[in-house]
Each structure stands twice: as C-alpha cells, then as structure tokens.
Amino acid sequence: MTNYLHKGDLPEGLDLGPVVAVDSETMGLIPHRDPLCVVQLSSGDGHAHLVQLNRKTYDAPRLKALLSDRKVLKIFHFARFDVAAFRQWLAVDTGPVYCTKIASKLCRTYTDRHGLKDVSRELLGIEISKQQQSSDWGADQLSEAQIDYAASDVLHLHALKEKLDAMLAREGRSALADACFAFLPVRAALDLAGWPETDIFAHS
Length: 204
Known about the structure:
Blueprint: E1 3-7, E2 19-26, E3 36-42, E4 48-52, H1 61-68, E5 73-76, H2 79-89, E6 97-99, H3 100-107, H4 116-124, H5 144-152, H6 157-170, H7 174-193
Helix pairs in contact: 2-7, 3-6, 4-6
C-alpha cells in the first residue's frame, strides 16, 4: 500500500477508474462553517491519493472534474456530509454517489452500529483506527499518522460496497438504496440551505 499526497489538486493524467472511493477531512462537522482541507481517493487497488487543498483558492480543476463526472461512481461512507462540503467549498455537485452507511442501515437492520469502524469489522474483519479523526487537518504539514488515517477511510470502501450490495439484493432493497443515493445531493443541499435537522417529509 502506498499513500500519495498531492498539493492542491490531483496530478494530471491520473486515472482512478470508473468506481472511486472518496472521503474528506475538514476543520469540523458543520459544512458551511468548517473549511474543507483534504480529499482522499482510492480506485480500490490498495493505494490512496490525498489532495491537500489550497484553502485560499480551492483551485482544483482535476479533482472537481472527477467529483462531477457522471461516468464515475463515487463511494462514500456518510456521503451526505462530504457531498455538502464539496458543494460548499469546491462549488461542485458530486455524483453519482454510493453511500455505504445508508446501504448498511438498509440491510443491517439487526444492529444500530453503522459507523465505518463497525461495518468494516463485521463485514471485512478489518480494524480501522479513528485515533486521528479529531486532529488539525488545516495544518500546513500533515503528519504520517494523519495521512495513514485519512487513507484508511477509503482503502476498503470498494470491498464494503461488494458485501453490502449482496446483502441489499438478498433483502430486496437494492432499488430503495439506489433511490436514496440519488436523493443524497438534494439532502446535502437542504443541509446547506438551513434544514440540517428538519425532516421536511414529516407531518409537523
């Protein structure tokens, strides 16, 4: 496994294939307040590419093109947050998307543990450390521990998708999952527009 750290944007000519695992690191958990700092990607080959963004300009045309490329499926865990952050800071509409957290909630109804760490442990037998989750992602120089942590969040999403797809099909919920994934950009837009905690489909 190799972790590649790129400053500002993806390198020219990099082809990550038709299905890319994506995650991001920000300065907090409120997408319209907390700046986007790092975007990490993997083609499922065991390697991770981290883009440390220029927060003064957010000029990353190749990364933005990939995120908005309708021919490339982007796999996330809790896509709602990342898609909102990309819309806020990169001014890009990400899609199409697949969210392993939503897939887990639809097919693993026997548990309330749907975090990446829990799903990876059960379905893949892999332990993912969350030690660096709360650290300074806005630092000019990322530590090796931060880089390794960020990479770990995308390295196994392809394998998780495969496991979850089989469970969704078994339970007859694949079409429902696809509909949820298609709605995710709208849900992210609602978050940014002022309805983060409101269920607009509720009676009251």
